[in-house]
Amino acid sequence: MTRYVYRFGGGVDDGGKGDKNLLGGKGANLDGMAAIGLPVPPGFTLTTELCTAYYADGEKYPDSLNAEFAAGIAHIEGVTGKIFGDPADPLLVSVRSGARVSMPGMMDTVLNLGLNDQTVAGLATVSGDARFAWDSYRRFIQMYSDVVLELDHGSFEEALEIAKEDKGYSLDTELTAEDWQALVKEYKSLVEKQWGKPFPQDVHDQLWGAVGAVFGSWESDRAKVYRRLNSIPGEWGTAVNVQAMVFGNMGDTSATGVAFTRDPATGENAYYGEYLINAQGEDVVAGIRTPQYLTKTARERAGAKPLSMEEAMPETYGELANVFSILETHYRDMQDIEFTVQQNKLWMLQTRSGKRTAKAALKIAVDMATEGLITEEEAVARVDPAALDQLLHPTLDPKAPRDVLTKGLPASPGAASGQIVFDADSAERLNELGEAVILVRIETSPEDIHGMHAAKGILTARGGMTSHAAVVARGMGRPCVSGAGSLSIDNVAKTLRIGDRVLKEGDILTIDGATGEVMAGSVPTVQPELAGDFGVLMVWADKVRRLKVRANAETPLDCRTARDFGAEGVGLCRTEHMFFDAARITAVRQMILADSEAGRREALAKLLPEQRSDFAEIFAVMAGLPVTIRLLDPPLHEFLPHGDGEFAEVAEAAGVSIDLLKRRASELHEFNPMLGHRGCRLGVTYPEIYEMQARAIFEAAILVAEQSGAAPIPEVMIPLVATKRELELMKAIVDKEAQAVFAEKGRTIEYLVGTMIELPRAALKAGEIAEVGEFFSFGTNDLTQTTIGISRDDAGRFLTQYVDKGIFARDPFVSIDVEGVGELIQIAAERGRKSRPGIKLGICGEHGGDPASIAFCEATGLDYVSASPYRVPIARLAAAQAALAHRK
Ligand code: PEP
Ligand code: MG
Question: What's the pLDDT at 561?
Fold first, then answer.
């Protein structure tokens, strides 16, 4: 029979072995901490398999669960010596969700469960503190009503505010036992009014309700959005942890806090965290009270007055620091920890690998390898390639003037400018329109996830470094400034006031997540520094990498950036972009609109020197490295003139009438240009275009070889080939032009002629095509489009639904559809290699910079991936990780 309940603490071990897949992240680590003898309150975990079984069986629990559940409670009762529901000395528990990875969209936590009208009196007697008991009861009702019953939490807060006002109090701590008792009454009537039933008094009903809410939240919209954004499969399910309560709010010898074993923003090897005396865990995270620093150094650095934990509770702090080092050694990673001190006794409530910025991830990985805690290869495997994005993008120019409005906490680094928006939906809407936005909130909650994702940066008025906004922003790599206390936000008027400055929705704001500065207007940026930890990790990555990494680049500047980022060649130089240059477009249009070969040749002659100098510049930057140049690909109508002015210009240059040109333009109209007269079909019908391009390539190559001594290695690539014959015809053009140029210049250059594989037919006939083609580059943008039959330009309108409904695990234009498109690539690679052993194979679609697709390329044994310049380092790291994973 499947076991659904695993107990932990009090020396009991059900053999869960810290298995995250079964116990969820939180449960696995509670089990793990208990197993190494750390002080963990006893509890039990309901497994992720129970969640899956629950949904598989139409939201019903298996029959065997009752007995296991009862044994779980009996375990906690046995260890604590308290009985669940006992009016004299009640056991209270917390209920927390815990998926395999932490998920902000989920129901999170219910504390103090087990309190009712009877047990609250018992708690008052046993603790000797009636105020504490009634405060705990009201917190429980409030939390349970919010997260389990999903009632309007605003009305509970309002009731509390009114109670305080009536009594003339300003702080919660001023309320007496009687005040809390009165508020409990008020809360219970709010529940009855909104829920239609009295607040549950049976402690078992309370517990089952909370468990059901955790499982229910797995399928909530917020959780689904988060799963989609983070590629978390729906079948994973969540676990639920039920654990004996410990109290950080039992007076001044009690406290609660969160801590990181290293700084999650910078990676510095120093304890980092926040705590509050006489408080419950949620007070720290919710940003209601401003937490105090954990260490003296951090407090002094911030110039803060309230004592750090190191100073206020030196002994317990010492114990905690000891636990930090045990945990880092045990888990061999930076830990994010929740703890509670109940009357001077330390309890560990959670540990997990801490979320961190890209900068911190790099520093921690490199430091830990240098410290000998992990190996270099583990360090390489630790850093999420996608997170490097944060480091590779520009930061604010330190020399640029800044109109600093205020300063908050530097919650997630990076700089961002954009229009102010005050709600997540507007952030999403404007982002879809291509606008950069800064989401400004009093504080964020899981409902804001989609807006945080859509925003370039996040600014909050409340909340510390571990607030929701800070944690989520760091995870997403969005710059964030949190807790900017001098902001006053009016969500109705949609204004933001800082002192006497008022900004409104749509005004431009800049935030610097590394310093916490908030500035009016936008501020210029500078390129990032690529040495230091980044350079060290890249060297380690390159040691294990097998796949070569090239760049998709078509300007000398892009090529320079790509080379600086470590590109080992150009994998795709799209020549059409050169045609759009303002100085050339008229000649291009003249060529397209010419109705004879002679007319086209006349225009092409004007383009030849331009193309030659384009290629020469690129070859010079990429000296000694291979450069794949793709001959013209897009349908000609893309270059056509717009409006009478442009037509007149072309007419004058070509010496023909505007009417004639317009007629010719309408002849070029296509119903489905993506499948129309493009790619090598242009070369087949207008060979002189490819002739000119080939000549420009070889003339440029010889020029650079003569000037620099380092001969470039041109790889001439023919697009959209479907048949061997097409490639034969195109290769003949290129070879003929090469021979002609070599003869004219009295010098030869090594070169290859190959093809893109972007059509299913080409993949299937790769054996024949490889008899002619000397290399293949998989153009997976078109190959995806033509294999699935989904237009790459229109897919955005419906693909999200395809991902939501599980038709595709991820957008196939972002991450390769391994089963379909991937199989065609495998077939092509196999057949190509068979007819031309050792044929060079690469990928140059957008997938070349996507880590999951790179893993596929490694497994398929391709020779290289080609990605846009800024993704080159991401590809290098992903290729190294793929090699490590493949080795296993
Ligand atoms: C491709 O189709 O994958 C490709 C790289 O070519 P383009 O995106 O220019 O069509
Ligand atoms: Mg293509």
Answer: 85
The domain that contains 294 carries what CATH number? 3.30.470.20
* The pLDDT value given to residue 635: 82
Q: What CATH number corresponds to the domain at position 83?
A: 3.30.1490.20
pLDDT the model gives residue 287? 55
Mean pLDDT score, 185-212: 97
How much distance in Å is there from the Cα of 678 to the middle of ligand 1? Answer: 12
Catalytic annotation, pick one of 75, 453, 468, 847:
468
Question: Catalytic residue at 468?
Answer: yes
- Counting ligand 1 atoms within 8 A of each CB, the residue from 755, 758, 857 with the most, and so the one to mutate, is 758
- Is there an atom of ligand 1 within 6 Å of 572 CB? yes
Q: What is the pLDDT of residues 75-86, one digit of tens each?
A: 999 999 999 999
Give φ, ψ of 758 to 5 degrees.
-135, 5
Query: Cβ(576) to ligand 1 under 6 A?
Result: no
Mean pLDDT across 670-699: 95
CB 886 within 8 A of CB 859: yes
Contact between residue 109 and residue 94 where contact means Cβ atoms under 8 Å apart:
yes
Closest ligand 1 atom number to CA of residue 574: 9
Q: What is the number of the ligand closest to the CA of 576? A: 1
pLDDT digits (tens, 9 = 90+) for 240-263: 999 999 999 888 999 999 999 999
Does 758 sit in the ligand 1 pocket, CB within 6 Å? yes
Nearest protein Cα to ligand 1, atom 8: 781
**Is the shortest distance between the CB of 780 and ligand 1 below 6 Å?**
yes
* pLDDT per residue as tens digits for the range 415-424: 899 999 999 9
Residues 405 and 489 in one domain: yes
Ligand 1: which residue has its CA nearest to atom 6?
A: 779
Q: Is the CB of 574 under 6 A from ligand 1?
A: yes
Q: Locate tokens 């008229």: which residue?
A: 586
Is it the case that residue 362 has pLDDT exceeding 90?
yes
Residue 778 Cα: closest atom of ligand 1 = 3
CA gap 27, 37 in Å, rounded:
16
Residues 425 and 329 in one domain: no
Pick from 353, 371, 400: which residue ends a domain? 353
Identify whether residues 287 and 317 lie together within a single domain.
yes
Tell me the average pLDDT across 450-457: 91
**Whether residue 238 has its Cβ less than 6 Å from ligand 1:** no
Q: Are residues 99 and 239 in the same domain?
A: yes
Looking at the fold, whether 303 and 174 belong to one and the same domain comes out as no
Among 226, 219, 147, residue whose Cα is nearest residue 450: 226
Distance 529 CA to ligand 2 centre (A): 33
Residue that terminates a domain, selected from 244, 273, 301 = 244
Of 138, 347, 119, residue with least CA distance to 244: 347
**What span, in angstroms and rounded, lies between the C-alpha atoms of 507 and 747?**
61
- Residue 519 within a domain: yes
> Residue 632 falls within a domain, yes or no?
no
Active-site residue, selected from the candidate residues 51, 573, 844, 857: 844
Better pLDDT: 851 or 173: 851
Q: What's the pLDDT at 724? A: 98
Residues 328 and 182 in one domain: no
Lowest mean pLDDT among 221-225, 622-626, 764-768, 882-886: 221-225
**What are the tens digits of pLDDT across the range 289-308?**
678 999 999 999 888 899 99
For residue 782, give Cα distances in angstroms to 773, 867, 888. 19, 16, 33
* Range of the structural domain that residue 18 is part of: 5-244
DSSP state for residue 307 in the 8-state scheme: P
Residues 295 and 213 in one domain: no
Verify that 138 and 285 share a domain, yes or no. Answer: no
Instruction: For ligand 1, say whether the CB of 845 is within 6 Å of any of its atoms.
Output: yes
| Residues 6 or more apart whose Cβ sits within 8 Å of residue 732 | none
**Ligand 1 atom nearest to 847, measured from its CA:** 3
Name 256's bridge partners. 276, 340
Based on the structure, what is the number of domains in the chain? 3
Asked if residue 744 belongs to a domain, the reply is no
| Domain membership flag for residue 602 | no
